[in-house]
Amino acid sequence: MQALILKRYGADGLHIADVPRPTIGPDEILVRVHAAGINPIDNMIPKGMFKPILKFDLPAVMGSDLAGTVVEVGGRVSRFQVGDAVYASVFGLGRGSFAEFVAVPERVAARKPANVGFVEAASLPMVGLTAWQAFKERLRLEPGQKVFIPAGSGGIGTFAIQLAKQLGATVGTTTSTANVDLVRALGADDVVDYKRQAFEQVLQGYDAVLGTVRGDGLEKALRIVRPHARVVSLVGPPDAAFAAARGMNVVMKLVFGLLSRKIRRLARQRDASYAFMFVRPDGAQLAAIGDLVETGRIRPVIDKVFPFADARAALDYLEQGRAKGKVVLRMSAD
């Protein structure tokens, strides 16, 4: 089968190549992939940015989000059968989704929402699970609270705004002039056009922050929070608690503690808490997200769809940072 593989770290490390079709274990399903969602981390991994955290045996198949059809089931699989349409994230599981077939553990898969196609479904796992775990487990977002989600027109932003509104929160976000109407239509309450205003001079009294933008945006976001606010970052810096949760050694705990020292100090000055998080695959959570999609309470936002043969061009396009919603690879006909 064909797959997009990382042969080596660096600018020329990605190649479409023929690799063996995976075999499945007793608790796995083999999925013929119809579409695969692309995420910012898919550009970061080939550059070696997550070498200390994510271990790859090169060459490795890239990608984490997929939607497709079950073509084989393991002996202990009980929830799926051949022919089922499913979607899943395989992030951090030692396998990739940018391939014609993927062996998917049953526990991380869910039935595809019936009202959307494979392309729309493939756009959901990473952003959906990230927002779900951030809001429900880490930020513990409650009705009536205010949450700041920068870059509201991006892949994570377009989903997170909708989920936060379903949880009863007031949402503040930033976007460019051209995308103000889009994020308002998704439910954002306080929208700051970053080309005209600095959000830290406009917003105030926020209970929670979902950090999605690299650079000094997180430090600026701490200026708008109220005491006892919670800040969770998806882009770093990692902290010692994250290293401990992933079973890293004492050296990495020390390194991450030093890397996050400044942001933790700034958070303490605001009587707030800071944490870094990685998403984890979870089929039960994807099933709950699928219910929200099927009932029309959340809609996928797709910017552009590329054929698999243009996977590298798709990654380059996403890296430009101008996508409105998600970028998806179409592996085969929907």
Automatic annotation (TrEMBL):
Q: Which domain of life is it from?
A: Bacteria
What EC number(s) does the entry state?
1.-.-.-
Uppermost EC category: oxidoreductase
What keywords are assigned to this protein? Oxidoreductase
Tell me the protein's name. Answer: NADP-dependent oxidoreductase
The record lists the organism as Massilia orientalis
